[in-house]
Design goal:
This protein is mainly beta. The protein has five helices and 18 strands. Strand 1 and strand 2 form a beta hairpin.
Length: 229
């Protein structure tokens, strides 16, 4: 048996709707600018040739239903409501036609962002890590099996006021296209999570704000923003 110098981290896992089994999380991939209206509100254009990606560390994932701290190092923390898909099989160089065969399920998700830090990184042409890969910044609800993304409504409200309201059919790159493209860049595996982009209407949150996200056919996501750390 290996002797570790200190205790290894606890496994990161998601809940599966309708069951007690837990889904171990391996990696978190995120798609940028996958809704044209959101790209426009950020002063950017979408790349219709292929998706582009950034990542979040698996230990930064939090389950919905509780309180998530407002992180240090920012005064402009933003919500981004997204569809997350969770893989349940290996995928390497799959076609879009076969891509959904490797999906275990889907969930409501929030990609929380230090917007001021992201803007600073863009201005200096640096990576987005400090703006995006933030402790507690990947918030996911229960995973539902058998979900097929089509034209379902995706919506987020803050303190009861709707801020994001769109359709999954507005994605520039569909879920099968994203999985197929990623599978040409990585050997995808069970437990990989993909956040598929956010529609327009992103905005800042403050400590005490209550966020409610929903996608038709999935378990709604509820989270409260806690005190600044």
């Amino acid at each position: 048996m290996t002797d570790f110098l200190f205790d290894p981290p606890e496994p990161v896992a998601l809940s599966l709707a309708g069951g007690s089994a837990r889904i171990p999380v391996r990696r978190i991939f995120c798609v940028g600018r996958n809704y044209a209206a959101h790209a426009a509100e950020m002063g950017a254009e979408v790349d219709r040739e292929a998706p582009f990606y950034f990542t979040k560390s698996a230990p930064h994932l939090r389950a919905g239903g509780g309180t998530v701290a407002y992180p240090p190092g920012t005064d402009d923390y933003h919500h981004e409501m997204e569809l997350a898909v969770v893989l349940g099989a290996h995928a390497y160089r799959v076609t879009p036609a076969d891509a959904m065969d490797v999906v275990l399920g889907a969930a409501c998700a929030l990609d929380m962002t230090r917007r001021d830090r992201q803007a600073e990184a863009k201005e200096k042409r640096r990576p987005w890590d400090v703006g995006k890969d933030v402790e507690g910044s990947a918030i996911l609800g229960e995973v539902t099996r058998g979900f097929v993304p089509e034209g379902q409504c995706i919506r987020l409200s803050v303190n009861g006021e709707i801020r994001q309201d769109a359709r999954l059919s507005e994605m520039v790159h569909s879920v099968p296209e994203i999985i197929a493209d990623l599978s040409r860049l990585y050997h995808l595996a069970p437990g990989d999570v993909i956040l598929t982009g956010t529609p327009a209407g992103v905005g800042a949150v403050q400590p005490g704000d209550v966020l409610d996200g929903s996608i038709e056919g999935l378990t709604p996501l509820h989270v409260t923003i806690g005190s600044k750390t």
